[in-house]
Amino acid sequence: MTSAAGDHRSLKERAREELRLYWIITLYLALFLVALTMYRRLVLAEVGIAYLHYGFALVEALILAKIILIGEAIGVGRRFERSSLLVTAVVKSILFSLLAFLFTMVERVIEGLVHGKTWSAILASFVENGFDEMQARALMMFVAFVPFFAFWEMRRVLGAERFEAIVLSREKVEARPANTHPR
User: Fold this and answer.
1) Residue percentage of the chain with pLDDT more than 70
2) pTM (2 decimals)?
3) How far apart (Å, rounded) are the C-alpha atoms in residues 91 and 93?
4) Which residues have a Cβ under 8 Å from the Cβ of 66 and sit 6 or more positions away?
């Protein structure tokens, strides 16, 4: 009976940790996507076009954060984790940028269907104005993902407690000898 309670508590702790990670990832992505939306709004305002899609940026951050957690859970990019942290971060950035690109394509299709567009009209909108923008957005996501996954991989290698002590603590963290590996 105690082991069942211990397992339940362990599951509860894992759920709490995943929820905490979800909100951290969401915050990072929301800051980036809102900044990108603000930049787009300012550029379009110069030619007289109003663009106020901040809500979409927040929803996209929520969805992308979940995609990242699911991708990590199923092992996207895991086979590269024996490479250097830089290689792992870049590969995961590429893979998750592709996932974000696919998500954007699905999002545009759903948006077109909701607005009553035909499949041919949806495809035409990709060619006319959407595909270049989606490629640029995927490139920007890649740029945002590189530092994100660099930190993510440092956290994985160092362990959550040590990583947070190094990154978030004001106290001086004692260095490990170079030949000591984390468990």
Assistant:
1) 86
2) 0.75
3) 5
4) 22
Outline where DSSP puts E strands in 33-139: none
* Residue for token pair 């957005």: 137
CA distances from 53 to 17, 20, 34, 57 (A): 31, 26, 9, 7
Q: How far is CA 77 from CA 24, 80, 140, 155, in A?
A: 21, 6, 20, 16
Do the Cβ atoms of 131 and 115 come closer than 8 Å? no
Contact 67, 99 (CB under 8 A): yes
The answer to whether 81 and 156 are in contact (CB under 8 A) is yes
Q: Which residue from 65, 56, 67 is spatially nearest to 20, judged by alpha carbons?
A: 65
If pLDDT is split at 50, 70 and 90, which confidence band does 148 have? very high
**168's tokens:** 């978030």
**Half-sphere exposure of residue 178, counting CA atoms within 13 Å on the CB side?**
0
Is residue 60 within 8 A of residue 75, CB to CB? The reply is no
- Helix-strand-coil split of the chain, %, nearest 5: 80, 0, 20
